[in-house]
User: Fold this.
Amino acid sequence: MSITRNVNGKCPKCNSDINIKIWDSVNAVYHPEEKEKIMKSELFKVKCDNCGSEIALEYPCRYQDTDNHIMIYLIPDFSEDQVKELNDDLENVNMPQMMEDNKFRVVSNCDELIEKILIFESEKRDRPIELCKRKVFKDIKADNAEISPVSILYNHNTEGEYFSFIGCKDDKGEALIVPFDKELYKSLDIELVNRDAYKEGMYEVIDGRWAATLMK
Ligand SMILES: [Zn+2]
Assistant:
């Protein structure tokens, strides 16, 4: 089940009282409609009835998709200690074998949560995706030393898969995207299999920093 609670807050724009629904946990299997709201970046927003402002909220939320063995904890600006605490809690649960295959992840914002869901839904693995991003970034930086994306996110639409360079524009002034290189993904995936890098069953942070550490 999903877990929610209501808290009172103030609109940062007009200072009116607003009632905020906090999602401590979202279960995609029982509540697919809530998952859809996450994918549209709507779940963690609240609208002020008085002035109509939309306020984006940031707070911890656990996303579960038990059908696909996915458990993603969104914790804004999480610390290593928080990840350790989550794993200590896991150790106290007697996990059945199936749970050990769960992909447990920690992400720091809603965009990263959406990205993880997209990656796992398209039956890809996030580790080689992070390595792909690193390679794509290096290639682009070789031509354009100035480039400095806020983040690089995997995405897909009807035309295919791609990486979005958040905060960067292309020559035409449009949001910079780079097509996804399936062959590169495959070769990095094989490399990670050979390195035995696919152990699951504990909360892990698989991001750019993880990729940088691995490549050292
Ligand atoms: Zn307001």
